[in-house]
């Protein structure tokens, strides 16, 4: 069977397999980034015009593009509706940007850890992934400068607000500094912000693209985390030099985004009832985050470290005694608990053991304690095995 | 600006530009493949469960996959629901198949002429396109055999039922013969059937994939031509050796197809009201086809030849005195008439002048005559210019 070279780089998707396992109703899943079912808003389709059933424009619905541009301008992003491309979920931006930039061996720059599906898309197209580690207030600036001095990546892919998987938020100072560095080295920025609206404490955090003065940029957003993921409506906003290429790639990929989802999105974006819904969502998720923080302190306090996330959907745990967390998965699923092994979020999984990504939005608070108790037991058991085999090894080595 | 090599192959989309021009309400558009507005069915969203708003499976909704498989089995395609992948429009299959097979220089085999967007997708990924001409009853078997003797294309892309743009339908004998040839040479078949259900005279026309005994295959279908294109719901059915790869590529592209459109599609597929709707659609489009046939005889009878299409949405005109029909576009649009120049459907446009694709579903019958009268005038004027300059050339050459 003669497939393309790229198919050899098509990894089995850990996410898909875990999510499939997590669909059994008895499983407590900390794995995905699924919105909580009770917070899916009630939507009405009554006033949708019949003409929405017809083919539409590849750019997206004009009124929705205007509403998205207005929301972005309110965040400080200078843009017009003509720069907005409505997508079949913001995931699609990763596919389009990969097509726009990546040949085999093209260098791209990523945070470590980074969003697993982005990594998969860039690697599928053959990218060489340069990485820069994250600190508590954002990307490591010294390493970033060093990378840019030696390399000329096609773009930098950053998730500055409630980063996935780490939950970190770049400080205002770091946002400015990153933009200045990208301008200095003439590197295009791909900024991904799916979680911006899921914020528990408001602080100044303008998008990094709003600080750029020279570099081209693409800003990605979605309605999947705040409205309904099943609509599959996301978007990108791009500088005018990039937009026409992205539009043609969008058209080649799937002609245009489904118009019923776009119509529904437009009923919410910028409205008073959307503001109220976001407010309720934040309160609800903050409570779940707090419940998980308590349960984590009880069950993981002695074996892991973490930051309290100020937004987004995830805790990012660093085990004090690292083990390969992919090994834990089977034992956890056997106990009806799902989570996301941290290794999957790194370009070099083997070198980054001992992290777990835990979603706090999906499992009901009254089941969280039990789920985390089981997961901690699985971790402790594996650490014991690991210590014992390490002990044997050092005995053998002695 | 360092883009990927593939972007140099990203052609400006003629379709997109013509469709944009055709959106002006005063334009009579014979260009697109848009369903007639009056035949967009009324749909109800009342009983859609709220849970449809959540993330879904990359494969598609299980009940919809089963309904699609059942419909395909009724056509003679041996398949299970597990082989069905629901797509964001069947256009997406072209993107996924390109990713699965095409590196720079990979040979693929196409009909000449063929669907413009398929050609664009394959060329974007760097394919070398081999072509085989069409005859009145389907692809030229002798040329097909000759091509397969000398080449080993990654797949053959065929549209055997109401081919786009030519409107041809492969005879039953040719379907079997093509399948036998592909089996003999071990070539994978990508069979695209968007227009199968828009049939005006039923004859035996089983999908070519149903005749294959050895070769792998992918069968593409859509609900865009018979239900609502704005839903963006299409599908592919693939042999089990190909399905897992296509599924992963689908997940990497956009996670999953929008679930609201999938839910709506499921309300129709296989139902009695869908059968009635299809019946009404066929009657309606047959009337429009007949109206266009009359108008064509009046205005194009002396300057073009064509077959009466037995299904689909298009007439394919061959000018008796060929001119580059792309040149006609501006003059036609200036007179508020849009059409699709035939050159765009060929791998070698310069070598195939003098064809026009005319859609008969969109323009109301009472305006068709006027639209075609204007278009014929534009053609005659260009032919006159062409004759005169040819005359000058032969004078100069003499």
From TrEMBL, chains A, B:
<keyword id="KW-0032">Aminotransferase</keyword>
<dbReference type="InterPro" id="IPR004839">
    <property type="entry name" value="Aminotransferase_I/II_large"/>
</dbReference>
<dbReference type="Pfam" id="PF00155">
    <property type="entry name" value="Aminotran_1_2"/>
</dbReference>
<keyword id="KW-0808">Transferase</keyword>
<protein>
    <submittedName>
        <fullName>GntR family transcriptional regulator</fullName>
    </submittedName>
</protein>
<dbReference type="InterPro" id="IPR050859">
    <property type="entry name" value="Class-I_PLP-dep_aminotransf"/>
</dbReference>
<dbReference type="InterPro" id="IPR015421">
    <property type="entry name" value="PyrdxlP-dep_Trfase_major"/>
</dbReference>
<keyword id="KW-0663">Pyridoxal phosphate</keyword>
<dbReference type="InterPro" id="IPR015422">
    <property type="entry name" value="PyrdxlP-dep_Trfase_small"/>
</dbReference>
<comment type="similarity">
    <text>Belongs to the class-I pyridoxal-phosphate-dependent aminotransferase family.</text>
</comment>
<comment type="subunit">
    <text>Homodimer.</text>
</comment>
<dbReference type="GO" id="GO:1901605">
    <property type="term" value="P:alpha-amino acid metabolic process"/>
</dbReference>
<feature type="domain" description="Aminotransferase class I/classII large">
    <location>
        <begin position="51"/>
        <end position="375"/>
    </location>
</feature>
<dbReference type="GO" id="GO:0008483">
    <property type="term" value="F:transaminase activity"/>
</dbReference>
<dbReference type="InterPro" id="IPR015424">
    <property type="entry name" value="PyrdxlP-dep_Trfase"/>
</dbReference>
<dbReference type="GO" id="GO:0030170">
    <property type="term" value="F:pyridoxal phosphate binding"/>
</dbReference>
